[in-house]
Amino acid sequence: MKKIAVISAILEEPNHCQKEFNETVSSFKGIIKGRMGIPFQEEGIAVICITVVGELNEINSLTGKLGNIPHVTVKTSISKKEL
């Protein structure tokens, strides 16, 4: 069953990790429904929120891959309701 989730990410060195982050997100484009990014240029941080709809293993896979990128911190909230 599919679930809705929100993946929140903080990129602490966007210049070093944004390319890999974007490539990883693009590889999961089938489950991504929306994305919002807010750059904090003076602080050298970017905050990104991604809304996904997918199987639990897909959501966890994306979260895990993003969390393994250096300078990226990730948290995911997953709905309890199944679609």
UniProtKB/TrEMBL annotation:
It holds the Pfam family TM1266-like. SUPFAM superfamilies: ACT-like. This is Iron-only hydrogenase system regulator. It comes from Clostridium colicanis DSM 13634. The lineage of its organism: Bacteria, Bacillati, Bacillota, Clostridia, Eubacteriales.
